[in-house]
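Task: sequence design from structure.
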């Protein structure tokens, strides 16, 4: 109920009330990972990019949230924050933290490929994609990564080969 209230308050531009509702929802013993994405969106609406990023990272790493914040949707929202903010130091620091905690998730490595390619680090992007494939990234998702991240068929041959 608190998450829906927070969403409704955000949609009606009552941002401080939305934030309070979502913060309360996260403190409940039984809370959903989606609460973090709603909280992050509320913080973004207030121009608080760094806090929005931290809320998402917390959500991605919260093992008590049931259901948890889906890795792919959380990372996609994180990418949107980074597109708006473009703080290279913060991006690198967050990637180190996420790598430490999400290293066994194929979707993290697909995201890492995107980050590396956007930072002009093409070789690192290919290595990250290779790791995602090793961890079981499904073929349709591999094709999405190629299209989304601007990797060529020649690059793909290197990764898949």
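Answer:
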């Amino acid at each position: 109920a608190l998450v829906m209230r927070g969403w409704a308050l955000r949609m009606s531009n009552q941002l401080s009330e939305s934030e309070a509702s979502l913060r309360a929802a996260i403190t409940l013993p039984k809370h959903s990972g989606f609460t973090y994405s709603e909280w992050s969106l509320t913080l973004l609406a207030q121009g608080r990019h760094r806090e929005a990023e931290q809320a998402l990272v917390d959500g991605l790493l919260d093992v008590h949230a049931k259901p948890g914040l889906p890795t792919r949707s959380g990372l996609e929202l994180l990418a949107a924050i980074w597109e708006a903010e473009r703080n290279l130091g913060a991006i690198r620091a967050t990637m180190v933290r996420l790598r430490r905690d999400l290293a066994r998730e194929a979707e993290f490595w697909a995201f890492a490929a995107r980050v590396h390619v956007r930072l002009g680090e093409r070789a690192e992007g290919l290595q990250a994609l290779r790791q995602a494939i090793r961890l079981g990234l499904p073929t349709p998702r591999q094709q999405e990564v190629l299209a989304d991240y601007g990797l060529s068929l020649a690059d793909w041959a290197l990764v898949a080969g």
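The chain has ten helices and no strands.
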